[in-house]
Design a protein that fits this description.
The chain has about 200 residues and is α+β, with helices and mostly antiparallel strands. About 40% of the residues lie in helices and about 15% in strands. Strand 3 and strand 4 form a beta hairpin. The chain is elongated and about 75 Å long. The mean pLDDT is about 85.
């Protein structure tokens, strides 16, 4: 897990691109924040996340035009991913409308096979997307959500147990209960404070 930040300030935990999108709705000292509040935020976040997605032309990320309508599309996908994650971690069946949003986003960048010449001069088969770059990123995140929620990783999906934290993560250790060490430290500090201030005889 590697936490980093961008213009919008949301953590990028690195567990899964779909969860990094979900976690752009985060909290600071218990107050909700939106890491995709503007086109500038989305552009910066997409530049940092996109190299982890398949078929994204990383060289084109330097000049990434983003409009308000693009922000709205990513927020729609975020709401759907968070809805599915909330239902799965709560032991409920995800709602069909959230699943439909993920599937529609995944369809935005259909791929086709293409021949490429490798640096050694061999021919190789690669997938190629002809969609605009933001559609490729949106579809890549949605594709990751499909793999996450319908694959082996779904069994490790957790909601952070720290009070006030709205983040999701993939459990990678039997004792892990929090999305990042900072949340665990806050919980432990709160427990220690309660013990120190507990009235005698209570």
């Amino acid at each position: 897990m590697s936490e980093s930040s961008y213009v919008g300030g949301a953590p990028l935990l690195g567990d899964a691109p779909a969860l990094d999108l979900a976690n752009t709705h985060y909290a600071v000292r218990g107050r909700p924040r939106d890491g995709l509040a503007s086109p500038v935020d989305l552009a910066a976040w997409a530049r940092e996340l996109a190299p982890r997605l398949p078929m994204v032309d990383v060289a084109a990320l330097a000049d990434l035009p983003v409009a308000d309508r693009d922000v709205a599309r990513f927020l729609d996908l975020r709401a759907a991913v968070r809805g599915i994650a909330e239902n799965l971690t709560g032991g409920h069946v995800p709602v069909a409308s959230d699943v439909a949003v993920v599937n529609a986003a995944a369809d935005r960048a259909p791929s086709s096979p293409a021949l490429v010449i490798t640096p050694r001069g061999d021919l190789a088969k690669r997938a190629r997307a002809g969609a605009p770059l933001l559609d490729q990123i949106l579809a890549g995140i949605a594709g990751d959500a499909v793999d996450l929620f319908a694959g082996e990783r779904a069994a490790r999906l957790r909601a952070c147990q720290a009070p006030g934290c709205p983040l999701y993560f993939l459990k990678d250790h039997p004792r892990r209960e929090w999305c990042m060490p900072a949340c665990g430290n806050r919980v432990r500090a709160a427990r220690a404070y309660r013990k120190r201030t507990k009235p005698v005889g209570a």
